[in-house]
User: What shape does this take?
Amino acid sequence: MERTNNKPEKEAGQPCRPEEIEYLHALNRLTPAGRKRLLTWLHVRTYAADEPLFRQGEPALCLFFLLSGSLALEADSRTGRPDRLKIVAPGQACGSAALAGDAFYGESCLALEPSRVAVLPQTAFHQLLAGQPAIAAALLQGLLEETLDDWRQALRTYSGLTDHLTRANIIV
Assistant: This one.
């Protein structure tokens, strides 16, 4: 599949600084030494408003950590308009399908405003997994915790909506 943006996996971007990753939720389980080691694999890219980071169906080649700005995760719908799944806020990650091997992105990611992201290429994660398995495991655990937090928030939101519709005698 042809890539939709002009930022290939191997594009280095700018080096990532320690203070930039201090507040990334998915890295909460890393020790300070683990964060320092991870920096060697991370680089920073900037995206303009409305610029895609990746599109649904593309090979998943990078994991992204939002440093500033905002991103939208959207999925194709039958209506032709994308369904907005989530607004990614600074400190959150997206594109975790890249860590699953030969996977494809299950949604598209679009910058809503000028945004800066720290990028972990899939090849770098494989090197982490082989050479620094404790760092890779802590990263995976942090990403899982972030995903679970998203699910819990969605459950709270939709259970409240379901309760409201039930009280209004609307069958859900």
About this structure: The first helix runs from residue 32 to 39.
